[in-house]
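Q: For a teaching handout, I want to show students what a protein-ligand complex looks like in token form. Below are the inputs, and the small molecule is heme C. Please produce the holo structure.
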Amino acid sequence: MPTSTLADTARGGPGPRLRLLATIGLMGAAGLCAALPPAIPPQVDTSALPAAPMPWPDENPYRGIALAAVIGRDAFNQTCAVCHGPDADASKSPAPDLRRLGRTCKRVRDTTLKQRCLQDVDVYFRNSVLKGKVKVGVRHMVAWEGILTPEVIWAIRTFIESPDAGKH
Ligand code: HEC
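A: Here is the structure, written as tokens, with heme C included.
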């Protein structure tokens, strides 16, 4: 004898299947929200770097600046490593390995094309960081806009694309 029938649904109840789906949905959302660590800006000093240009440029203004990569590593480990892995080595982490971003650009020989390729990645990177990530209605990463300064965001990008990324 089923505990719930079509008649239950007709009486206005949501029916067992819908109730179950709703419960799983709530559990899932609550679980993920609880797992999101608080978005706290890293304690780093970017004053020795040139001010990041505004409005947002399409290209990382710190590309190739060694100090930016050093500061970026520190900021990354304080703020991003919990999901994207220590020193950007995500081999044991739940979130994507950010070292992959732009890896194909490095193989492009033509310098103009290579620059355009890197610009695309820079724009994707900054937009992902500023807006965060939501998948099927569930937030996987907070929007870092207003939490991280542009200097910190570009310093992190510089570290991730440096040969030191992934090295502990
Ligand atoms: C709470 C965990 C969490 C934290 C903390 C976090 N991220 Fe993410 N991030 C994710 C997840 C999960 C994704 C993948 C989401 C998706 O696939 O839609 C992601 C995606 C990204 C992407 C896009 C990657 C791609 O391959 O498409 C970038 C860039 C990124 N994060 C940068 C950062 C930076 C920089 C920080 C630190 C300031 C950071 N994230 C902190 C969880 C996190």
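A: Two things your students might notice: Strands lie at 133-135, 138-141. The domain at 41-160 is CATH 1.10.760.10 (Cytochrome Bc1 Complex; Chain D, domain 2).
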